[in-house]
Amino acid sequence: MTRLGFEYGLQYEPSQENILTTPLALVGDVARLDQPTGIRRWVTSTNHKDIGTLYLCFSFAMFIVGGLMALTIRAELFQPGLQVVRPELFNQLTTMHGLIMLLGAITPALVGFANWQIPMMIGAPDMAFPRLNNFSFWLLPPAAILLVASFFAPGGATAAGWTLYPPLSVQMGPGMDMAIFAVHLLGVSSIMGAINIVVTILNMRAPGMTLMKMPIFVWTWLVTAYLLIAVMPVLAGAVTMLLTDRHFDTHFFNAAGGGDPVLFQHIFWFFGHPEVYILIIPAFGIISQVIPTFARKPLFGYRSMVFATCAIGIVSGTVWGHHMFTVGMPVAGQLFFMYATLLVAIPTGVKVFNWTATMWEGSLTFETPMLFAVGFLFVFVVGGLTGVILAIAPVDIQMQDTYYVVAHFHYTLVAGSLFAIFAGTYYWLPKWTGHMYDEKLGRWHFWLSMIFLNLTFFPMFFLGLAGMPRRIPDYPLQFADFNMLASIAAFGFGFAQLLFLYTLIKCVRGGPKASAQVWDGAEGLEWTLPSPPPHHSFETPPVVA
Amino acid sequence: MMQSSSTPVSRQRATSVRIALSLAVVALASFGGVILAEYTRSPQIGAGVLGLALVAFLLVAMTRRERG
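ok -> structure tokens follow
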């Protein structure tokens, strides 16, 4: 019996009934003959791997678009005064950078991982609703086009910030309507994708794979999908009310008509804070797969990891008010949201402890995925700890809307989510493409990203502590040096991502052949499939003992 | 005694559809409930929507196919 892993002795027995190797590959190749090729393959595909690839390519394209906006912002902030863009365009760029990176780049990238990996990890042939899966993806490009095209609308794109707060968002031009429609499309896509993921995980697992035998990555996506279903409709409701305020004479958020702008903030952050966890929980899942592989040890504390993930998901729905300490909240409210936010540090701390304990006395090697995973541990903790600082109401009132907040959330989302996405990409790329990537280029990518990330965002803590407000195109001379450093480093970080693109293309086009196992310490059903996997991953469900 | 004519695949499909519909109801109720609660300024509607969502989540948990 071949031991495949997980912490609870999950075992898979390759028998004639549930064979996964050569015969399945043949079946897959024969099945592939019936599949459309060329552009039709990508447009009409209902295969989870094709759709996963589409999600990943789309997210990278949006990452480049959002990144170019970030570089324009940093070019403007290179020195005091107005050099590159008008203040109105600067505000549009900061708004669109946030919306595109959160909803167009990071979320689709993680959904791409879910599409590729979940069926293979649970022994399913595909997602539960393949056509719905295709539709979920194809809602994204129109949303992206709406967001980018809104720059050319009269008055330009929305400049209300990614949070779309009224009254600004009620007063803006048609670019705001385009953004609202884009958010609706992205929301519908996310909800349909989340339903598909929940059903796949609950109903399509291989016989014998109980919930507590599922890989942690699958667990993290189950919790994330529930979160998406719980909070995405709330965002859709909020932007629908904005739309009716703008065009149908309602007064949900219009103070002049008896509405309440602060109400929007409550509704928005009821979505917005869980959204942060939607972006980081699957990243935790990726890191939980990578570290045990390169430590050659089972994940320390599997059960506590599962419970910590669920705890983070539940608590995340109770902390939204910490984004609103300065709006005039009662002290009891401030205390509640402060303590609830501090509570999140406990399950997150459990995770960091478990990852560290997994590495303890392990046979560690540092290939690129592991470099990114260890890098994630260092820099994500910076983001997490500064979050604890910001959770304390009196401190937050001082830091509100300063660059300290900008540094904090970039440390959680760039150093956290993005580094985990890089780790996962290098980890599973040989499985997806059948080729090993260039390890030397991967290491260069890691070190350049690590150095430039810290040079870009760490100075922002000092800028924030010194009182530099966010979302301004100009600033006093006293902030010039750190801004110059951050801008130069941001371009370095951007260059490092071109190296990543080159490494990806090189790997897709060729390279040393990857074995089915790829990494000697890797455990799980996906590693029993050939690299690349056949068109239909598991036509006969494997039996997990 | 009548024998069920459904195959394991069709039973699994039916369970999948049932779970998906329950979750879709949760999403639609949240979407409509947020707007309705604010439109009527009624905290009862907000609490009702939350309760419906919880019941639907529980239904999903209880009706999912038991696995060996």
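The first strand of chain A starts at residue 2 and ends at 5.
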